[in-house]
Amino acid sequence: MELMRRNVLYFAWLVAVVATLGSLYFSEIRGFIPCELCWYQRILMYPLSLLLGIAAFYDEHSIKKYVLPLSILGMLVSSFHYMEQKIPGFAAIKPCTQGVPCSAQYINWFGFVTIPFLALIAFTLITVLLLVFRKK
């Protein structure tokens, strides 16, 4: 537990980097075209990779007040996107206007793991890490 407390910024940074690389893998290697909501999630995740990396390097825990709003907002966007994919009729609330529909599911592992679900897990992990483990 003490190891986690000392290295919370590194763990949060690692989650952000894996999420960033994962999104780039899906779009650049697998050729999945991101929808509008995917782009919003990327806009919120990519800066976290940079900000948390710098904060971890300098052991700067005051960065939380800057990255938590991005992470929490990312959780909300990812949740909305996931509901749009999995709840019938929910997509009618905010239809994507052009390009790939936001209800499209490029992956559907185990019947529930989609790309927005993976983003939701990453945003949630970052938020929990930064809220639960405080530096003494």
What does this protein structure show overall?
The chain is mainly α. Helix content is 67%, strand content 0%. It has 5 helices and no strands. The chain has helices at 2-6, 8-29, 36-58, 64-86, 115-132. Helix 2 (8-29) runs antiparallel to helix 5 (115-132). The chain starts with a helix and ends with a helix. The model has no long low-confidence stretch (mean pLDDT 89).
* SS-based class: mainly alpha
Are there runs of 5+ residues with pLDDT below 50, and where? none
Radius of gyration: 16 Å
Mean pLDDT: 89
Succession of helices and strands:
HHHHH
- How much helix is in the residues? 55-70%
Summarize the structure.
With 136 residues, this protein is mainly alpha-helical.
Question: What layout of secondary structure does this protein have?
Answer:
Elements: H1 2-6, H2 8-29, H3 36-58, H4 64-86, H5 115-132
List keywords for this structure.
single chain, mainly alpha, elongated, 136 residues
